Amino acid sequence: MDYVSTRGMAPQAAAPQALLAGLAPDGGLYVPARPLDPLPPGPTFRDTLLAVLLRFFGELPHPALAQAVDAALARFDLPDALAFRDCGDAVFLELFHGPTLAFKDIALTLLPHLLALASAQTGGGGVRVLTATSGDTGSAAMAGFADVPGARLLALYPASGISEVQRRQMVCQPGANVAAIGLRGNFDDAQRAVKAAFADPELRARAQAAGCHLTSANSINVGRLFPQVAYYLHAAARMGGAFDVCVPTGNFGDILAAWYARLLGAPIGRLAVACNANRVVCDFVRTGRYDARRPFHVTNAPSMDILVSSNVERLLWLLTQGNAVKVRTWQGQLQAEGWFQIEGYPLHDLRADWAASWADPEETERAIADVWERFGYLIDPHTAIAWKTLRDLPPTGRPTLIAATASPWKFPRAVLRALTRQTPPEDDFEAMEALAAHTRLAPSLSHLRHAPILHDRVADLTQAPQAILDALAL
Ligand SMILES: *Cc1c(COP(=O)(O)O)cnc(C)c1O
User: Each residue of 219-260: pLDDT tens digit?
Assistant: First the structure.
């Protein structure tokens, strides 16, 4: 598959180049250069996933892609990685049976293999991956990259401001080629340190001297976006007819994958965007106006605490049938002024297929309690926002597939508070124990409480550049 940039100022790139570059050189995001032909799902998720990879990354050696799929799926605790759960008019698609219990595992167990294959094909000496994380991405990236030959990864996280479960998922992660460093600062500081590193000529020169590619593992990469298409295609076979989707949304990667599944033939009707109190994308879908000039809220669904949602740029490109001039204008205005407004047929098309709603933290917890009380099914805060969103929208007569993006055991304090309506213990692991007692369910992740700490480095912001060089062995 060849890719073009949403901003239209970069050369067309084959899949290996697009994978290794992450962002296109003109600052845009890579999208398939040609319209997509239908792709029927296979008998198993594994078959569908492989077919999707062959479609999007077919330049990579096919037997190696099949091995990558098997290696990735072997990390999941279910034979075919996914589970479905019917609750009334909704079907929850459980995407959290991978190593870190969140949906990002599906793409991040594959990405290291895709990058290593792309690097080998372009004559490179492996990949070095640097990523800033507010929690989920770092642990999923570390678990995915651990012990993958030819790859080395560093996750930078804010030393305070992430949950204890999230911190332990990183600092206890084995693997000689992965590392996590806590920065004394907040998530923005960590992100700035990563941006500064990518712009640092010294680091670039050292990577080049070592013959390796320097890249990031965030969701702008085609290697993170397109594997996700597979589970919507697979779900289409399970739903057995037209259905809607409702997806908890942050960076807009997961729900955009559902749109690509529709382009590949999945009979998806309405796509519902579910946001938390940082509801920029919800407002955009309702009005066509994207306005990031607003206060940032820290919520109980932290993986969706985001105001600039990168993958919206790909949606803009699709809505305008690839009008890169328009996309450049909107993105330029977003960068300069913090907002833009779409009008005319792109807005009309957006309203025809998409819907949106949102939940504040209290509504989120009420949704967790609602699903537990009605169905005896325990969901996490992100997934609960999708449930609440579905209640807000007019019924269509079709069943809705809800992407269940994380295990409730990742967020035990919020889930316990939702069920008991009492202040939970400060400590995540105590909350986990109480939640297990309250629900009579077996907890996941409780082993982390006493797991050995393997990455104890904490650095000041001024030490970040050296710490990055050390950890990436450059
Ligand atoms: C990352 C994440 C999301 C948001 O997914 P996007 O692809 O960024 O929209 C939702 N839920 C959970 C649990 C996540 O980790």
Answer: 889 999 999 999 999 999 999 899 999 999 999 999 999 999
Spacing, Cα 249 to ligand 1 middle (Å): 6
- For residue 242, give both structure tokens: 């037209």
Closest ligand 1 atom to Cα of 249: 9
Long-range contacts of 454-458 (CB under 8 A, 24+ apart): 454/171, 454/172, 454/173, 454/174, 455/170, 455/171, 455/173, 455/179, 455/180, 455/181, 456/171, 457/179, 457/180, 457/181, 457/182, 458/159, 458/181, 458/182, 458/183, 458/184
**Ligand 1: which of 279, 303, 314, 415 to mutate, judged by most atoms within 8 Å of the beta carbon?**
303
Distance, C-alpha 31 to centroid of its chain: 17
The H-or-E segment that residue 353 falls in is helix 345-353
Residue 243's H or E segment, with its range, is strand 243-248
Question: In whole angstroms, what is the distance from residue 3 CA to residue 412 CA?
Answer: 41
**Ligand 1, CB cutoff 6 Å, lining residues:** 102, 104, 136, 219, 248-254, 303-304, 382, 405-406
pLDDT value at residue 434: 98
Residue 125 has what pLDDT? 80
Q: Give nearest CA residue, ligand 1 atom 2.
A: 303
First to last CA, the chain: 32
Closest among 149, 67, 75 to 106, alpha carbons compared:
75
By most ligand atoms within 8 Å of CB, the mutation choice from 104, 133, 219, 411 for ligand 1 is: 104
One-letter identity of residue 258: A
Q: Is the pLDDT of residue 124 over 80?
A: no
3-state secondary structure of 168: helix
Going from the Cα of 430 to the center of ligand 1, the distance in angstroms, rounded, reads 25
Ligand 1: which atom is nearest the Cα of residue 380?
13
User: What is the pTM assigned to this prediction?
Assistant: 0.96
What's the burial of 273, exposed, middle or buried (CB within 10 Å: 0-12/13-18/19+)? buried
The pair of structure tokens assigned to 123 is 């004559």
Q: In a mutational test of the pocket of ligand 1, which residue from 368, 405, 409, 415 has the highest number of ligand atoms less than 8 Å from its CB? A: 405
